[in-house]
């Protein structure tokens, strides 16, 4: 898998991220587009993983403290789940975070994704909470 990133809401990588998010969050999970696409889009770095040139997995991240990244909008296209692609993208994200002197990654995980994050050594720090009608837990990992 090839991973790419772009800072801010611009360019083909960002558009690929939007397409994946639309498919997963809006079409599959029924999330309101007004909740999915917010006024903060331009403040994030977008990560997209490509399988044979096709965008299949995405996430976005932004610095919230000097040494903390908040990772959000993690999504994998339905036909590509459970193939290790999200794990590969997270390895790329964590490598980029280390380059940026980030020491901790924090995320608000959907309950169904918690086992995935536990397997990558993320720890639950609070929850449950409802977001967009879906149970979420705050999780984090020291990197």
TrEMBL record:
The UniProt record lists the keyword Transferase = yes
- Tell me which positions the record assigns to the signal sequence: none
Q: Cite the Pfam families for this sequence.
A: Acetyltransf_10 (PF13673)
Molecular functions per Gene Ontology = acyltransferase activity, transferring groups other than amino-acyl groups
Is Translocase set as a keyword in this record? no
Q: Residue limits of the N-acetyltransferase domain? A: 4-143
| Keyword entries, A-Z | Transferase
Looking up InterPro entries in the UniProt record yields:
Acyl_CoA_acyltransferase (IPR016181), GNAT_dom (IPR000182)
Q: Extract the Gene3D superfamilies matched here.
A: 3.40.630.30
Name of the protein described by the UniProt record: Acetyltransferase
């Amino acid at each position: 898998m090839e991973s790419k990133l772009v800072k801010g809401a611009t360019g083909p990588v960002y558009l690929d991220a939007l397409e994946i998010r639309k498919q997963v969050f809006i079409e599959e999970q029924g999330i309101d587009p007004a909740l999915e696409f917010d006024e903060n889009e331009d403040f994030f770095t977008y990560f997209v993983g490509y399988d044979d040139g096709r965008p299949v997995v995405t996430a976005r991240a932004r610095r919230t403290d000097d040494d903390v990244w908040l990772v959000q909008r993690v999504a994998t296209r339905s036909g590509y789940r459970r193939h290790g692609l999200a794990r590969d993208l997270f390895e790329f994200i964590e490598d980029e975070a280390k380059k940026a002197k980030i020491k901790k990654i924090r995320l608000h995980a959907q309950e169904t994704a918690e086992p995935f994050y536990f397997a990558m050594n993320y720890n639950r720090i609070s929850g449950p909470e409802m977001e967009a009608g879906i149970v979420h837990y705050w999780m984090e990992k020291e990197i």
